């Protein structure tokens, strides 16, 4: 039997991306909001699957929350293994349930291995939570992975109240990013293109744990 190779190629470290998607009934009014969100996530998965990311490996999961529960709509898997099914809008906005499930996913080493880079969490919502959410958010922010995560938030639609935006501001990890306000569906598309490009660049970087910062002028590079 021949000698084992002296050097072996390093296995790519996972860079987890977890989307928390509000699919409450108001996301279907107008229908265009949920349709565009589905399209954006589908394109993001396709782009991550085909991206040349060097030493990183982008893994993606999607939590959908509506009615009175949250579910892992897309398991956390390498992007190339994801198989997207469109989400449907219905019921309430159980953000607390979504945050609890996100915490469970991040703590599960079969989903997010210990050697993973710091995760990126993207919370998308168009209204106020309809369940108790503050304790669930505190647990997520106090957890080892949740506290280090790059946490982004998107407020969808022109009717988001300041109270609803304040909830999203509690979630974000960097005041420089704040809460991105997508008053029309074109802005949702721009934002997800920005997330796709910056996460891909992050995976290629020599410092993948450095979180990207969104500047207002950045989105002009990503069309309407």
TrEMBL record:
Span list, region Disordered: 205-224
SMART domains tied to this protein: VWA
Domain VWFA: 16-195
Residue spans of biased composition, Basic and acidic residues class: 206-218
Name of the molecule in the record: VWFA domain-containing protein
Naturally occurring in which organism (per UniProt): Streptomyces daghestanicus
Lineage start: Bacteria, Bacillati, Actinomycetota, Actinomycetes, Kitasatosporales
